[in-house]
Amino acid sequence: AQTVTQSQPEMSVQEAETVTLSCTYDTSESDYYLFWYKQPPSRQMILVIRQEAYKQQNATENRFSVNFQKAAKSFSLKISDSQLGDAAMYFCAPKRSSNTGKLIFGQGTTLQVKP
Amino acid sequence: NAGVMQNPRHLVRRRGQEARLRCSPMKGHSHVYWYRQLPEEGLKFMVYLQKENIIDESGMPKERFSAEFPKEGPSILRIQQVVRGDSAAYFCASSPTRGYNEQFFGPGTRLTVL
Predict the structure, then answer these.
(1) Three-state SS sequence of chain B
(2) Does the CB of B45 have a partner CB in chain A at under 8 Å?
(3) Which residues of B touch A101 (CB under 8 A)?
(4) Residue B1 above 70 pLDDT?
């Protein structure tokens, strides 16, 4: 069974600075996808970034990028030039690429952005 | 192009009553997933449905919970004889095909059991 660990329950960052959220996972699958979702106070789940495990190149989406280390089963999220609107809970979620559709979510990291 | 819709957004039930949560997937999406989020926790998978079929219900409690996704109409998550421990946010997500890897989430239904 897949397990996901987000070891930082809370993080804070100064506005305009950079912060990295960590995530490790355990899977026996060779082919899978990894996602970071953001959940602001509205509780809406918003996809931040996705990574295909077969790709060596780290995904980037504007100010968001990942550091994907497949051998170490690590998938960290870097937020550059942090903005007040980035304050939210962030969830890491791997997903098998086979027929089952379920996402396995970590416990989440609450990010506070200080002005 | 409306997103995933869930209703009601807030639902209050007394212990022993039934709760019905509805999810309308995005237009053109035929795959629906239900997740539950307990306070201060991440989302936990409950069930994955395709129209008229349950594909994976490995996360559903064995009793009192059921889900359906009929040929016409929204997907329904039904909780019978609710207990206080059922209080949580229930999220629905949809995707267009089985192999499509991104899931689009609805705003959630917050269930409170008194």
Answers:
(1) CCCCEEECCEEEECCCCCEEEEEECCCCCCEEEEEEECCCCCEEEEEEEECCEEEECCCCCCCCEEEECCCCCCEEEEECCCCHHHCEEEEEEEECCCCCCCCEECCCEEEEEC
(2) yes
(3) 31, 33, 48, 55-56, 95, 98, 103
(4) no
